[in-house]
Amino acid sequence: MSGEVYRVLPAAKKRAKIDDEKYLKWYKQSVKDPEKFWGKHGKRIDWFKPYTKVKNTSFEGDVSIKWFEDGVTNVAYNCIDRHLKKRGDQVAIIWEGDNPYDDKKITYNELYDQVCRLANVMKKNGVKKGDRVTIYMPMIPEAAYAMLACARIGAVHSIVFGGFSPEALAGRIVGCESTFLITADEGLRGGKTIPLKANADKAIEIASKGGVDVKSTLVVRRTAAKVDWNEERDIWYHDAVAAARGECAPAKMKAEDPLFILYTSGSTGQPKGVLHTTGGYLVYASMTHEYVFDYHDGDIYWCTADVGWVTGHSYIIYGPLANGATTLMFEGVPNYPSPSRFWDVCDKHNVNIFYTAPTAIRALMGAGDDHVKKASLKSLRTLGSVGEPINPEAWEWYYNTVGNKKSPIVDTWWQTETGGILITPLPGATDLKPGSATRPFFGVQPQLVDNEGEVLEGAVEGNLCIVNSWPGQMRTVYGDHERFIQTYFSTYKGKYFTGDGCRRDEDGYYWITGRVDDVINVSGHRMGTAEVESALVAHGKVSEAAVVGYPHDVKGQGIYCYVTLMEGEEGDDALRKELVAHVRSDIGPIASPDKIQFAPGLPKTRSGKIMRRILRKIAEDDFGSLGDTSTLADPAVVDDLIENRQNKK
Ligand code: WTA
């Protein structure tokens, strides 16, 4: 592990809102008296009716999490209306298209108009407070309008990443019984089109077999491709919005009214609907956005995520807009038309704060320094990283070559479930160590425990738990509170268990080591190995499958599949291709297996449990340390697995 320490840069400290002294003081207050601390900071958003209760949370028993519960507010009002007087003509969203010649600027006044119109269209088509609206869209401004229009009328959005298949989309539509869908004719990424409307049509058909009928589909024209049209169900977005009124009063929302559902992968079963609510979420997203990135009025801020993931929710839309920022929304990919795209966009729009994922950093590092060096990048001031552990080599390259040694890197650890960043450096306060997410944000109390739940003190490695609530925390699994309790609060009683392993060093810095459960992290995208397994066994020739992650130079982790075929089937490259195509169509391209090993048998205990530890080791080509295999029902299968491994060094 790199021992290098990068001291706080004097310039960063000088301009920062929080220096080390203030961090330590605020942090102490925030854990000593959360009521008082959050009672004060809750006021950073506007409330129609102020709260009198701040915190009412319990990680025990039925687990109940409520923040600011008697306050009344509206998220869209906070992200738009309250800024109009001061910054109506300021750019709210810079949109950079897939094609470098395609861009657009949307002011807060324009955002207000667009969101109100869309909100009225949704109301006219029967969407009411509490209804679930599915959004399946490319990275275009209409995606932001759709989120904010839902928030404005109190509808609950569920965004499904545009890279997911019709089957995956259908599952999420049925999961939250959503009968209103917003999509586009096609998406455009890296010069390639994605048939969103056609996928949506298929998904609607599948969902209807699952008992949920989508009543209306609002379709944005993005590429003007010809699409099938169902007169009864489909509505052209632009026609409807043009005819709607540009005023729509924001709904009065209680702090604990739902804001959105976002499906995410876990270690078992199908993805679960993480539910976030209104008041606490917005307070936390906006506060972390301001302090973690040391955001100042007038800064140009760019987070490269997709709105289909939580990072896009909290740090492209809600956090920045609540702070009145100019947020950049990018439709494309890092290497199109060339690997200098990110840096060209930074120069073109004078980006000050840049937030991306280690997988992109590694890929661009691999493309060579010339792509970076020809850009000026002089506007950059703060760099961020999110989604997976960043290896020290990538960190150093980001710091030296992209940041030119003058921009601190904030390595932000958090999860879909946490709503916002929990462990992170602050640019003007925290000395940096490459690869460490460093210290907890205000109000966050991490704890490391061993497998038996014993609390570990000092410099040590263990399982990462959080022992007290913070306002951005998820409130439940949509429609299944029991699963919420089981998944997060039953492993270690009374604590929120993150599923991550973590080391704490002698300075109290946290180093996330990765998932300790059956979740893998592929290019910063969370994937449940159980989901890939269930897609594989749904194929007629597959009898059994086990999926594990293995280290991958660019993606962080790759997907390694062990597949046992039905009696009489032959495993060859043609079948490998067929299985890859099958998983892609079942879940989406992000779940494409990287390696498939055909195995006559899988290592199992005598009670029939697959020994994943062994499969992981073989996938890592580390079979020298397989550990004890004597408890296996048939130890001989291991020899075959090693012999035919697909990852030979
Ligand atoms: C991992 C993304 C190390 C972690 C915001 C977590 C990280 C999972 C970091 C959540 C980081 C996220 N360092 N690991 N800075 N950020 N992770 O829900 O394993 O898509 O549990 O949320 O990503 O992924 P999710």
UniProtKB/TrEMBL annotation:
Organism: Ahrensia marina
Cofactor(s) of this protein: Mg(2+)
Binding locations of CoA: R189, G190, G191, K192, T311, N335, S523, R584
First-tier enzyme category under EC: ligase
CDD domains: ACS
Binding site for Mg(2+): V537, H539, V542
An annotated GO BP: acetyl-CoA biosynthetic process from acetate
Record's catalysed reaction(s): acetate + ATP + CoA = acetyl-CoA + AMP + diphosphate
InterPro entries documented for this protein: Ac_CoA_lig, ACAS_N, AMP-bd_C, AMP-bd_C_sf, AMP-binding_CS, AMP-dep_synth/lig_dom, ANL_N_sf
Official protein name in the record: Acetyl-coenzyme A synthetase
Family, as annotated: Belongs to the ATP-dependent AMP-binding enzyme family.
Domain Acetyl-coenzyme A synthetase N-terminal: 23-79
Molecular function terms, GO-annotated: acetate-CoA ligase activity; AMP binding; ATP binding; metal ion binding
Binding site for ATP: G387, E388, P389, D411, T412, W413, W414, Q415, T416, D500, R515, R526
Post-translational modification: Acetylated. Deacetylation by the SIR2-homolog deacetylase activates the enzyme.
Domain AMP-binding enzyme C-terminal: 531-609
Domain of life: Bacteria
